[in-house]
Amino acid sequence: MSTLRSIVRGVGGYLPARIVTNEELSKTVDTSDEWIQQRVGIKQRHVAAEGEFTSDLAVHAARRALDNARLAQADIDLIIVATTTPDLTFPATAAIVQQKLGLHHGAAFDIQAVCSGFLYGLVTADSFLKSGMARRALVIGAETATRILDWTDRTTCVLFGDGAGAAVLELGGDGEHGILASSLRSDGHFADKLNTTGGPSTTQTIGHIHMEGKEVFRHAVGKITDVVENVLSATGYTVKDLDWFVPHQANLRIIQGAGEKLHIPPEKVIITVDRHANTSAASVPLALAEAVGDGRIKRGDLVMLEAMGGGFTWGASLIRW
Ligand code: UT7
């Protein structure tokens, strides 16, 4: 009997129409295109329009993922939205997405693991499918991160952008395709290194993003390589077997550092940070949607996803596409 695995049937991404370049930002923030490109590799970011919410971005991405999967909304019985910027404190943004997709059946909930949220969502959906709790899942990473920025703090406000990415998962039994192995980690002792300055229970405000950038940077490469190596050793594959590396898009230098440490050739690394900036939970599915859409990632390819962010949280997932 072949092993049942969660297969990615389709992916989709959505970016708000408005683009803010580094040039434009440097008119209101004490920064420069040169500093941002040199330190982070970002050239521009997308910013959601007034009245455009995280759930709206999520719904656009979800519809594109369903089209890509050639499935209908009604086929979905599990919606997981990974987000740090929900429409409201409650209900879950996933419930609002469920409503906007016109669905009444199944289950919908949010996951909060900041930039690692999509990986956490993927692993949760994988477990639901394998246990028989759901048949087809929509896993969405969606953020309006620009809404929780302090626009007077140049150390954070130049780094983030808005967007959403989605994947449709379904259990399949060919034994080859699907999620082969995943590794999730967290260490709450680093909670104060990357957080918001407020929240419902503490300040009754949403707060702004606060980051000790150097500290986060110092931990990022080591933590990313650890989980990637865990996943490879769990499956018996090596770095040489990988067709694509799809990292969280926070900083080009972190991506390059992890790629070099793991000995992954740069041409196998999907990069979107230059155009999307850091879209937190949306960054990995957005990068996936781009690379599947332009034909780089094809059926049968071996794809490694990874992310690291607030918590700290970090994780990796190996998928036979
Ligand atoms: O998704 C979550 C994961 N997040 C990350 O992975 C982010 C990790 N951290 C980083 O990417 C980097 O630490 C940053 C890009 C945030 C900062 O880069 P850095 O090389 O660590 O710079 P720094 O904080 O040490 O700042 C160097 C200088 C400082 O000036 P002085 O004190 O040397 O005069 C800053 O004030 O750069 C200055 N600076 C800026 N200058 C122009 C900081 N931000 C800016 C800015 N524009 N936006």
Automatic annotation (TrEMBL):
<dbReference type="Pfam" id="PF08545">
    <property type="entry name" value="ACP_syn_III"/>
</dbReference>
<keyword id="KW-0963">Cytoplasm</keyword>
<dbReference type="GO" id="GO:0006633">
    <property type="term" value="P:fatty acid biosynthetic process"/>
</dbReference>
<dbReference type="GO" id="GO:0005737">
    <property type="term" value="C:cytoplasm"/>
</dbReference>
<keyword id="KW-0276">Fatty acid metabolism</keyword>
<keyword id="KW-0444">Lipid biosynthesis</keyword>
<keyword id="KW-0443">Lipid metabolism</keyword>
<dbReference type="GO" id="GO:0033818">
    <property type="term" value="F:beta-ketoacyl-acyl-carrier-protein synthase III activity"/>
</dbReference>
<dbReference type="InterPro" id="IPR013751">
    <property type="entry name" value="ACP_syn_III_N"/>
</dbReference>
<keyword id="KW-0275">Fatty acid biosynthesis</keyword>
<feature type="domain" description="Beta-ketoacyl-[acyl-carrier-protein] synthase III C-terminal">
    <location>
        <begin position="232"/>
        <end position="321"/>
    </location>
</feature>
<dbReference type="GO" id="GO:0004315">
    <property type="term" value="F:3-oxoacyl-[acyl-carrier-protein] synthase activity"/>
</dbReference>
<keyword id="KW-0808">Transferase</keyword>
<dbReference type="InterPro" id="IPR016039">
    <property type="entry name" value="Thiolase-like"/>
</dbReference>
<comment type="similarity">
    <text>Belongs to the thiolase-like superfamily. FabH family.</text>
</comment>
<comment type="subunit">
    <text>Homodimer.</text>
</comment>
<dbReference type="InterPro" id="IPR013747">
    <property type="entry name" value="ACP_syn_III_C"/>
</dbReference>
<comment type="pathway">
    <text>Lipid metabolism; fatty acid biosynthesis.</text>
</comment>
<feature type="active site">
    <location>
        <position position="115"/>
    </location>
</feature>
<dbReference type="GO" id="GO:0044550">
    <property type="term" value="P:secondary metabolite biosynthetic process"/>
</dbReference>
<keyword id="KW-0511">Multifunctional enzyme</keyword>
<feature type="active site">
    <location>
        <position position="278"/>
    </location>
</feature>
<dbReference type="InterPro" id="IPR004655">
    <property type="entry name" value="FabH"/>
</dbReference>
<feature type="domain" description="Beta-ketoacyl-[acyl-carrier-protein] synthase III N-terminal">
    <location>
        <begin position="109"/>
        <end position="188"/>
    </location>
</feature>
<feature type="region of interest" description="ACP-binding">
    <location>
        <begin position="249"/>
        <end position="253"/>
    </location>
</feature>
<keyword id="KW-0012">Acyltransferase</keyword>
<comment type="function">
    <text>Catalyzes the condensation reaction of fatty acid synthesis by the addition to an acyl acceptor of two carbons from malonyl-ACP. Catalyzes the first condensation reaction which initiates fatty acid synthesis and may therefore play a role in governing the total rate of fatty acid production. Possesses both acetoacetyl-ACP synthase and acetyl transacylase activities. Its substrate specificity determines the biosynthesis of branched-chain and/or straight-chain of fatty acids.</text>
</comment>
<dbReference type="Pfam" id="PF08541">
    <property type="entry name" value="ACP_syn_III_C"/>
</dbReference>
<feature type="active site">
    <location>
        <position position="248"/>
    </location>
</feature>
<protein>
    <recommendedName>
        <fullName>Beta-ketoacyl-[acyl-carrier-protein] synthase III</fullName>
        <ecNumber>2.3.1.180</ecNumber>
    </recommendedName>
</protein>
